[in-house]
Amino acid sequence: MLPMAGRSLRRVLLGAVTLITLLATTAVPAVAAPTGLPAWGGGGGAAGSGPALQVPAADLARSLTCHDVPGSPLPTILLIPGTTLTPQANFSWNYERAFTAHNRPWCAVTLPNNAMSDIQVSAEYVVAAIRGITGRSGKPVSIVGFSQGGMIGRWALKWWPDTRHEVGKVIGLDPSNHGTLDAYPVCVPGCAPSLWQQQTGSKFLAALNAGGETFAGIAYTSIFTPIDEVVVPNLPPAPSSALNTGAGARRNISTFDVCLGHVAEHLTMGSFDAVGYALVIDALDHHDPADPARVDRAVCLQPFNEGVNPVTFPVDLAQYTATVATVLATYPHVFAEPPLAPYATGT
Fold this sequence. Notes:
Layout: H1 4-23, H2 57-62, E1 64-67, E2 77-80, H3 87-91, H4 95-101, E3 106-109, H5 119-137, E4 141-146, H6 148-159, E5 167-173, H7 183-186, H8 193-197, H9 203-209, E6 219-224, E7 249-254, H10 266-269, H11 274-284, H12 313-330, H13 342-345
Parallel strand pairs: 2-3, 2-4, 4-5, 5-6, 6-7
Antiparallel strand pairs: 1-3
Helix pairs in contact: 1-12, 5-6
């Protein structure tokens, strides 16, 4: 069972999610993305296999912020935020704090337009981040992403083959690997390009998942909550977040596999959920994907992951949910899915 305080916090967040869904039907000019750490000036558009990057190299370099740990034997973690979010809003008050406290090197990539625009363009930022981090550290990158951020790295790996040798782990928290049925009603009056692309059955997702979902030499961990109200359905026997094909080592893990009946909805999973965080750490600390059997069940009683400051939590949570609601309500709508890039159609 969850402590009373934890259950109350999750009810508040669930109410915020309901409000966000209602606000998503209104479109006015987009808001600017929050700023994070000073930009890391290395890497960017280094050459490699796959299509040439179209985003200017200076923009790619500015998108990456890093916390270096000189001499660390650990691979650098690449944090990728979810739709509507920036690294500042998504990770600065939880994962970044925890990784810094444990001397884990990490970088975070800011996707354009709060990850609301064409995911194919946003993926170029991920490609450049992978190349830049590996070039600087000499070690494979460990990707940790939330929602769209847990899926977008797979687009980079699929179409830029050199990145497959530069990534050791892909860890997704409620990743939208097979999209969501929720995007259909949301997009009836028009919606952001990335929401069209995350509809179940979109052309984007069909191209992403065709021919195998994973690559050999990479350990994939997909962590999801069965009561996810955003990536829908995330229930057995075919959770939307799950990865089931390809040559990569993979494991799909429900929060119920660790704590039966654990209450965590979508936004909770991408920020302060202790069970999700414990599985991320297990995946980072082992060569294989995360394993629920290795996770201490004491985590079931923890209201937050260890990066969260209980004193500032109410303000941090309010800013997090406000970012999601504001961006959903204000980002301009389009009325069709963006066309697939020529490299994804074989032309």
